[in-house]
Amino acid sequence: MAARHSPLRRNPTQSRAEATLKAIREATLRILKEEGPARLNTNRIAEVAGISIGSLYQYYADKHAIAADICNELLMSELGDIKRLDRQTLSLARDSLDSTLAFFVEEHVARHRRLYQQLKGFYLEIHWSYDFEVYSRKLYPNKPSTAEWLPSALQQHHAVLRVHDFELAAQMVVNALEGTIHATLDRNPDLILSQAFVDELQAMLVNYLKKTPTEGAPPLPEE
Fold it and tell me: Where's the HTH tetR-type domain (predicted)?
């Protein structure tokens, strides 16, 4: 897996710097939309943004760092909802594991959909190296990761589960979810736009975690 890119080399301290960052991001999106990802490089971004290449490198190491910052900006509206989403997820977990997984999968896929629809082919180059959860944890250090809150949710529904090591199961769920989404983006990206993909992904996780009717039934008497 590629190393995760740290978007900004330095933080803007004045309005002029903010304007430069905005121009860089807008130029990147304009090039992707009008010229395609093959034309995207730091020299072309600086040219379209109307700045020197030196000014660009004051803030970004490369085009991938710019893209990571754009991803953060595109998902920024979700940050205000993180605490609400956490509360909703934990509330659902008390009542229904199926509903919890459905909500979790839908929210996770929706983020990748948004970035793919905005960045198109370029997101397919960088999706393995961008992690929104890492970014949100920087802003909300006390926010539990999925691998941290999911074991307690599984514990509440242990009677219907086939798994017994809840921490391992939680990590398997996270890995299966992220791995399937990323593999789909590599091989058939438009599939993540369909509700059928979300439904099948949820069913895969539920089938891994929960007992089948025969697993929960008492053994048949011997004849």
Answer: 18-78
Look at residue 222 and tell me if it is in a domain: no
Tell me: pLDDT of 54 over 90: yes
* Domain count for the chain: 2
Q: Is the dihedral of CA 90, 127, 184, 27 positive or negative?
A: positive
Tokens representing 167? 């921490």
Per-residue confidence at 218, pLDDT binned at 50, 70, 90?
A: very low
Check which CATH number belongs to the domain holding 50 and give it. 1.10.10.60
Q: What is the 3-state secondary structure (H, E, C) of 84-126?
A: HHHHHHHHHHHHCHHHHHHHHHHHHHHHHHHHHHHHCHHHHHH
- Point out which residues pair with 161 in neighbouring strands: 210
Task: Provide CB contacts within 8 A for 204, sequence distance 6+.
Answer: 176, 180
Of 189, 205, 193, residue with least CA distance to 128: 189
